[in-house]
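Re-running the complex after MR caught last week's input typo. The corrected sequence lines follow. Everything else is unchanged.
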Amino acid sequence: MKNIYISEKVRLIARDPKKDAARMAIWQRDTEFARLQDSDPVRLWNVSQNTAWIEKQQKSDAFDGIEFTIYTLDKDKPIGFVGLDGISWHDRTSWVGIGIGERDYWGKGYGTDAMQILAHYAFEELGLYRLNLNVFSYNTRAIRSYEKVGYKVEGTVREALHRDGKRYDLIFMGLLREDFRHK
Amino acid sequence: MKNTSLFNAASICLTAVDAEKDAPAFAAWTQDSRFISFAGESKAPHPRSEMQTKEMLEEILKESDEKRNTFWFGIRTPDESELLGITALTWIDWANGAVQMDIVMKDIEEFGKDSAAEAIALLQNYVFHEIQMHRLSISLPAYNKNLQKTLENLGFKKEVRRREAVYRFGKRWDSIHLGILAREWKEKNDSRTLYS
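Corrected-run output:
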């Protein structure tokens, strides 16, 4: 048996409340990154706020989510994070989120590799049946990456985002266990 | 002024939710295994005691007070003697002008009645004319056919179908997301303004 947290380009490690908090504070200052990440207004958090955020997630009694830090295999460099949140055990579903904070690693397959590991973990370790995510219509790079993993577009929430005076859609995508296994 | 209230319709009115007073009715609804709870509810379906229900409602109202982005309403008969359901704007995304709503009714049939339709129509009016938002969304499990029909009659359009996202009644069901934009609602309801 192999360690499923290691793939071809990256490995996933449990987030570290101290080390990751400082990196997050740097990535949050990249507005383009922040606007790909969240529909909430872009804002800034200090290192101890970020530490508290990660600690709160990790101390939660209910196992309803988990976040990993993505490390490259070649240079052992932390480049982003990926995780599950809102796991519903009776529905056997979860929501998925990912962010690659290091711009040099955009569009090169690192995120796709991390998403492969996460889907494998969700289906083969946690016994989940389906994964959900949503992505902004202007994030075409991410949409292509999710499609490579096997996610399918399941619909469009029209004009759900308002940025720079323009309206953008929110795209919903889903991955079923069977689709992932037969990929 | 044609009408002085955002909260009254022909067969129902919207009022504040009162955790103490509303717990017995809501708890009673959950004793029927067919009861359809809030679509946004993350917990597995289960009957609730009055104590659990009161705590759940208190939690909801506390969050509503703190975050100022969720508003809750009790759906009652016009004389306010009976609670028929609870509806809410569960997430007002002020920056994007996008609102998410949710609704429970006392039983499956009630989702298809005027009470549900009028409550949702009042929320639409509230969202587009009172807080001036751009769009309103709702998601529901595909087995709630009565609610889907009510929503489509009120101008909601299907936007997303999350395949097999919900487990209930021994099988998997799609989750359907519907939405309506301010301009779509205004085309349908141009005459319904409070001030003329």
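None of the earlier attempt is carried over here. Chain B has one domain: 13-188. The helical segments of chain B are 19-29, 50-67, 114-130, 145-153, 182-188.
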